[in-house]
Amino acid sequence: MAYRVCFVCTGNICRSPMAESVFRARVAEAGVDDLIKADSAGTGGWHEGDAADPRAVSVLDEHGYGTEHVARQFQPSWFGRLDLVIALDTGHLKALRRLAPTEEDARKVRLLRSYDPSAGTDLDVPDPYYGGRDGFEECLEMVEAASAGLLASVREHLEERPV
């Protein structure tokens, strides 16, 4: 059974689809895309059914990442099928842990930048939505920096799983 990761931001049109795209690329590069599946969602449903923000798509495309994305809202019932829920900032982390039906589910929620050893103490990925293109570039840099550590952690969890 595949290890399932869901990236979550506010509206699911900027940060979380960028994180999903980068992580999927890392998983494919590692040749484990049959073992690890990634998707994304938002804490709110404001953009449900929308494509990713055109600025996010442009930045991803320019850096060699693709994205076919339709925004959706995270549902508490998904915890049962997910192994890891990755929040893009502390507000998302708190919201997701409140939604978690059990303590075990709440422990599945982690901050993306906690997987980047160079992140320091500020583990939030700032929301680029209300800013310019440079915010999307910064978001991508943070996502890329954390993706290697996240993939290493997921692979470690896979090794610990009973066969």
List keywords for this structure.
single chain; 163 residues; alpha/beta; 5 helices
Please tell me about this protein's structure.
The chain has helices at residues 15-29, 54-62, 90-99, 103-106, 133-160; strands at 3-9, 36-42, 84-87, 109-111. Helix 1 (15-29) packs across helix 5 (133-160) and helix 2 crosses helix 5. The protein is 40% helix and 13% strand. With 163 residues, it is of the alpha/beta class. Strand 1, helix 1 and strand 2 form a beta-alpha-beta unit. It is globular. Strands 2-1-3-4 form a four-stranded parallel beta sheet. 39% of the residues are buried. The chain contains five helices and four strands.
How much of the sequence is in beta strands? 5-15%
Instruction: Give the strand tally.
Output: 4
Radius of gyration: 15 Å
Main-sheet strand order equals 2-1-3-4
Helix-strand topology string: EHEHEHHEH
Largest sheet: 4 strands, parallel
pLDDT under 50 segments (min length 5)? none
Number of helices: 5
Instruction: Tell me, briefly, the overall form.
Output: globular
The average pLDDT value, as a whole number, equals: 96
**Separation, N- and C-terminal Cα atoms:** 10 Å
Give the structural class.
alpha/beta
